[in-house]
């Protein structure tokens, strides 16, 4: 026995052992050390008694950690290494640890010398345990150093096998990253943690005809996993746990970035959000790890967390207590028991999930740092933060003492009195009873805060009657499919749970729809097209306004429904990037159109822009964010912007384009063509413009132009000179063609002012014709004969007291009074100023005309097509009434009749029966 300089023998050993917490273990260890002590080294007695951290610290380590004692007796040089002040008195950073490993194993780790890595790891683990037991290392230092040790092991093993695989198989043009979760992700590893990992690669591809990137990276991951699971005399390197990966043990070891995104968006559950809070890149490509975290930030920190998030976390904790811990251990398991470490983590993580999207400060993997963030943002009371902080530190110290003994994954305080006494004394309690009281008090306080913060109530979904549907059996199946998915489609439990909350709200909105059956069908199709139903359902649960928008849109417009189903991303584009509560002006449309990428010959970017903006206008209309006149003005501005942009794009700027009809008045509706005239000489440019704008593709067309109001109609030339127009209007134009000039407005081109001045002159002359009113009335009757549906009551446009009658009434008065104003509403206001109409007549006329235009708008927006009459089907009439806001059809019918009678009465008095 080499105890020099003075051989104190067994008595010295017994004295040291007797003063320890475990005399037999300490005595055995010292004896074995003495037998193996190097002859030329500092004597063991001196090492023990002059140990830099104190004799007590070293004896404490030998007493409470059989694994550390075994390491020292197996290799006494380790104790001499620890005896160096620079080793044991100060914490060690990552670089210092790495240099130490380099000294032991060289530049690289090979399969043959993984033992050197194990030896280095065991030596560092012993140093960390020693400093903690000596009470010179705070919790943050201990957990950080333990995490660094694990990271170095993982990186060295990865680097070895990555180089080996690339030499053997070639190098994929894809990056690979290792992400840590759990305590390693948070940099707060304990003495015997499993390390929770995700293996990730950037892109799919083919390395060779027989080896895909997926196979390459999964083989690499498997080899890394095998390396850590091989037993060795120096002990295992780490216990690697991949069960937190997508699909758990059933899923591949490594996934591509896209596969990860699809999984979490479609199937990710609340516990996976909690896990990803601690995700951190620790090996491989830092850029890929960063991109993963960036892509998944909306999943980890949702802007609108689901209302029952806390209920889900409470359920997770209850399942842990029931299935993992068991009733008998609930008060003794410092990690998973009542008031244990996991409850502190759940409180912190729940508040991170709720507030993290708004406060990036909370997007923190470390529990203690996140806890401080909650205090600084006043999201937890100061006293509760202090309680949780102290309890966390205390419970982690207890956990570490339990694990230091053999580096086994244990968290349960022993029942056996002597073992409990040794644990208590190691933690500086005078007795097991005092320790137990302190432990119970800490856990009781944690439990109280956990119960206050984490909801335990679970509301049952309301039972909603399906009588709102015509086909109740089909509706029930559709609702079941939404919750369960098709037979071959896996729906995560969280998704089903989210839909249970969504279902009653969805049914409530469907009950208000004009056609619940069709609307539900469109909703189901949209969900299937959206793909990420978990994400969508949570979005709709947390944003009821968005659900309202979808249901109302699917009910109001088959055109919009099909567009959203074909391009579901439009919903996000419009609701996130656009302000639905404000209009977009002509100039802004032109600016956006000019910024489009038209490098390809296709005009689909322009067509897609038109479709997107048309949908945005329709959504504003459906939600009641825009009045009828505002919607008409927005549609007109969009149409005008598309026309001006295409004119410039096709090099047709020498053409002067004049708007007529409702386009001239800036009051077009859904599904409208643009009535225009071309002024100039370039027929080819005009033809090209008409054909190109009307050319359809999968994105629709740009806009259809209608030039039939030109001289001689469809028989006449598409483009006429200014002189030709002047000559035609002065000599050969029909009265209705001169009347049509009432709504003339120049859009673009060099002859805008000249054409408008000419049009005003001939229009004013026509207004003085002695039989002006008769001519207008005759034209109205001709329109009814040629364009009516055969049912005057259903013809809200051409019928008696219909839209056209209201327009002809105002145009007749305008022409007689010489009031030039293309917009119908402003023209009525000016007629009031002239005294031609009284205030009450103006009010009644505007109210009646707006009601009929609203009817037209609601019917047109359904298919984005021109509609001039109600359907003869009573059920379709009922649906139209509901879409117009009338629950009772009789109330709508009465309003409809009153509007038409009001217009007709004024028309008869001021036009048909008025004296010239």
Brief rundown of the structure:
Strands 1, 2, 5, 6 and 7 form a five-stranded mixed sheet that branches. Strands 8, 9, 10, 11 and 12 form a five-stranded mixed sheet that branches. The chain has a two-stranded antiparallel sheet with strand order 3-4. The chain is elongated, with a radius of gyration of 40 Å.
Strand content: under 5%
User: How much helix is in the residues?
Assistant: 55-70%
Structural category is mainly alpha
Shape label? elongated
Largest sheet: 5 strands, mixed
| Mean pLDDT figure | 89
Our Rg estimate from Cα atoms comes to 40 Å
By DSSP (H or I, 4+ residues per run), the number of helices equals 42
Distance between the termini: 135 Å
Number of strands: 12
The low-confidence runs, each spanning 5 or more residues with pLDDT under 50, are: 1-7, 457-464
């Amino acid at each position: 026995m080499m105890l020099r300089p003075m051989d104190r023998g067994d008595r010295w050993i017994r004295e040291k052992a007797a003063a320890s917490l475990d005399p037999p273990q300490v005595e055995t260890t010292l004896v074995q050390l003495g037998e193996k002590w190097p002859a030329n080294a500092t004597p063991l007695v001196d090492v023990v008694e002059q140990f830099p951290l104190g004799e007590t610290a070293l004896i404490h380590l030998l007493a409470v950690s059989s694994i550390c004692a075994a390491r020292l007796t197996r290799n006494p040089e380790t104790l001499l290494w620890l005896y160096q002040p620079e080793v044991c008195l100060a914490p060690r950073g990552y670089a210092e640890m790495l240099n130490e490993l380099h000294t032991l194993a060289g530049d690289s780790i090979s399969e043959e010398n993984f033992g050197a890595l194990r030896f280095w790891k065991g030596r560092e683990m012993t140093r960390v345990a020693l400093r903690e037991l000596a009470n010179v290392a705070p919790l943050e230092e201990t957990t950080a150093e333990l995490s660094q040790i694990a990271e170095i092991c993982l990186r060295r093993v990865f680097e070895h096998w990555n180089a080996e695989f690339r030499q053997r198989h070639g190098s994929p043009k894809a990056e690979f990253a290792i992400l840590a979760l759990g305590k390693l992700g948070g940099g707060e590893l304990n003495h015997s943690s499993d390390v929770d990992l995700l293996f990730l690669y950037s892109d799919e591809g083919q390395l060779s005809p027989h080896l895909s990137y997926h196979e390459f990276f999964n083989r690499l991951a498997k080899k890394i996993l095998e390396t850590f699971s091989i037993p060795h005399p120096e002990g295992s390197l780490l216990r690697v746990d991949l069960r937190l990966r997508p699909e758990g043990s059933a899923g591949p070891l490594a996934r591509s970035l896209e596969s990860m995104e699809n999984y979490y968006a479609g199937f990710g559950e609340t516990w996976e959000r909690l896990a990803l809070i601690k995700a951190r890149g620790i090996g491989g490509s830092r850029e890929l790890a960063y991109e993963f975290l960036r892509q998944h930030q909306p999943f980890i920190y949702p802007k609108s967390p689901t209302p029952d998030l806390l209920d889900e976390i409470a359920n997770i904790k209850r399942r842990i207590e029931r299935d993992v811990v068991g009733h008998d251990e609930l008060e003794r398991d410092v990690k998973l028991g009542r008031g244990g470490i996991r409850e502190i983590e759940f409180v912190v993580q729940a508040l991170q999930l709720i507030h993290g999207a708004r406060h990036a400060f909370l997007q923190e993997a470390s529990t203690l740092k996140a806890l401080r963030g909650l205090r600084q943002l006043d999201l937890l009371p100061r006293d509760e933060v202090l309680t949780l902080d102290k309890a966390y530190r205390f419970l982690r110290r207890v956990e570490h003492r339990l694990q230091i003994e053999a580096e086994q994954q244990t968290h349960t305080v022993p029942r056996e009195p002597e073992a409990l006494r040794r644990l208590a004394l190691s933690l500086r309690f005078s007795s097991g009873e005092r320790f137990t009281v302190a432990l119970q008090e800490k856990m009781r306080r944690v439990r109280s805060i956990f119960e206050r913060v984490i909801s335990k109530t679970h509301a049952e979904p309301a039972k909603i009657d399906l009588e709102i549907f015509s086909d109740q059996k089909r509706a029930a199946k559709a609702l079941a499919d939404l919750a369960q998915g098709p037979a071959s489609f896996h729906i995560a439990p969280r998704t089903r749970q989210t839909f249970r909350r969504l279902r009653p709200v969805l049914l409530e909105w469907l009950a208000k729809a004009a056609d619940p059956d069709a609307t539900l069908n469109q909703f189901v199709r949209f969900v299937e097209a959206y793909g990420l139903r978990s994400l969508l359902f949570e979005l709709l649960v947390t944003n009821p306004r968005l659900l309202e928008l979808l249901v109302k849109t699917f009910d109001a417009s088959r055109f919009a429904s099909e567009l959203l189903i074909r391009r579901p991303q439009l919903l996000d584009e419009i609701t996130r990037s656009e302000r639905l509560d404000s209009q977009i002006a002509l100039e802004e449309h032109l600016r956006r159109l000019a910024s489009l990428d038209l490098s390809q010959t296709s005009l689909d970017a322009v067509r897609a822009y038109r479709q997107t903006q048309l949908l945005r206008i329709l959504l504003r209309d459906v939600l009641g964010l825009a009045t009828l006149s505002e919607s008409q003005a927005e549609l007109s501005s969009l149409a005008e912007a598309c026309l001006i942009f295409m004119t410039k794009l096709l090099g047709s700027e020498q053409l002067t384009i004049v708007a007529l009809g409702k386009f001239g008045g800036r009051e077009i509706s859904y599904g409208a063509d643009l009535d225009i005239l071309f002024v100039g000489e370039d027929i080819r440019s005009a033809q090209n413009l008409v054909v190109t704008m009307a050319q359809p593709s999968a994105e629709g067309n740009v806009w259809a132009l209608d030039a039939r109001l030109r001289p001689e109609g469809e028989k006449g030339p598409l483009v006429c000179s200014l002189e030709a127009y002047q000559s035609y209007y002065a000599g050969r134009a029909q009265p209705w063609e001169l009347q049509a000039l009432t709504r003339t407005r120049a859009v673009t081109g060099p002859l805008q002012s000249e054409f408008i001045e000419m049009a005003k002159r001939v229009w004013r002359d026509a207004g003085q014709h002695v039989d002006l009113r008769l001519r207008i009335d005759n034209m109205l009757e001709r329109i009814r004969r040629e364009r009516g549906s055969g049912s005057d009551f259903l013809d809200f446009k051409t019928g008696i007291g219909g839209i056209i009658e209201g327009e002809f009434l105002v145009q007749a008065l305008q022409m007689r009074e010489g009031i030039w104003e293309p917009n119908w509403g402003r023209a009525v206001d000016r007629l009031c100023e002239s005294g031609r109409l009284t205030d009450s007549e103006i009010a009644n006329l505007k109210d009646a005309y707006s009601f009929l235009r609203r009817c037209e708008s609601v019917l047109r927006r359904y298919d984005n097509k021109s509609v001039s009459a109600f359907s003869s089907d009573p059920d379709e009439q009922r649906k139209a009434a509901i879409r117009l806001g009338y629950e009772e059809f009789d109330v709508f019918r009465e309003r409809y009749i009153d509007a038409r009678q009001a217009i007709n009465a004024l028309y008869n008095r001021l036009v048909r029966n008025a004296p010239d």
